[in-house]
Write a structure and sequence with these properties.
The chain is of the alpha/beta class. The chain has 15 helices and 7 strands. One of its GO terms (biological process) is peptidoglycan metabolic process.
Amino acid sequence: MKIFTKKFNRRLAMMMTAVTVAMASTTSLSLPVKAATASMSENSIITFKNDAPTSERIQQLIDTAMHFYWNGGDLKQAEKDIFKGITLKGKYDVVENAFKQATVLDPYNIDLKMSLASTQIVQKKIPEALRTYEQILHLQPDHFNANLLYGMYSKLNGNELAYKQSINNLRKIDADQTNSFVQKFKETEEILGLKMNTEVPKGLPSKDHAIVILGYALAEDGTMQETLVERLKQGLKLAQQYPDSKIIVTGGVPKNGVTEADNMTKWLVEQGIAKERILPENKATDTVESALFSTEIIEEQGIKDVTVVTSASHIRRSVALFKEADRFYSKMNGKEAKRNFTNMVYMDYETVEEAHEVPKSELLVVYRDLFRTAGLWQYPGIQR
């Protein structure tokens, strides 16, 4: 279940009741919302009067943004009824423009501006995001997260001086927290140069070792796509060579009633892996949550060494996030983060040389998700 679903359903019921009893023929705002319950059709339209309380209009814009973030929707309908005069090229255009309108309705709300900047980052609109962060910092110069994000995204955009200035500002705000992030950045830079193993690594521990196979979106009918099957094949090779290792399969987005973890477990058992070796993690909706939720299992099982299995194009981000999740869980439990992380990949590049190049677009996603794993929510209070 998505993070906002329960609250959204309660608001939805109240909104539908209001629409039913409302008889005034004033100009209205019509918002297409995909059915949140089985009783509603996919093309349901919720209509609100423009003279509704501002708080309700802001909340509806937030709900619309998050609905499109997760599910998409009818862009032409959104152009016609919500964002008149704006051509929408994709669902994130709806998310961005919904937060833009929300910041107009409540220009004092910093969280809305942070959410707008996050959506611009998701779309790789770094200059636009930096301008949004600058607005926040003009209003709140000591806002730690805005300073941090502005600094790193400035660096990724080629402005090293702005990054250094941000770090200096951050040390004045909270020196310990700043030094912690600087260390995270240093370790992440090291991970960006990791060697990818396409064959089973030698010399892995025979005790307290786990193989983590990362999921990949299922087809609409619930079947596994090629990328996920190839990841499983690599994980199977590891599992056969290291028979005492636990296997964590992670992925919780359901399609046609099954999750990635469900299908992965079934596939491995069909290949002869004992079911008791397999630890399904079936709540994660993305790589950030896979790292956090799998690490909880790793901690619970007393695992000391982890081999992450995924696609080559996904491995740098995955290892960076697992190391960050390990730092968090170790700190929470009063321990030093000492787990060793190795990898095995399905090579989804044309050449090994290409695989080891780190484009700017990948850097952006690595650091964006590193921040999320470290506790900086992408949409504050709404969605990690």
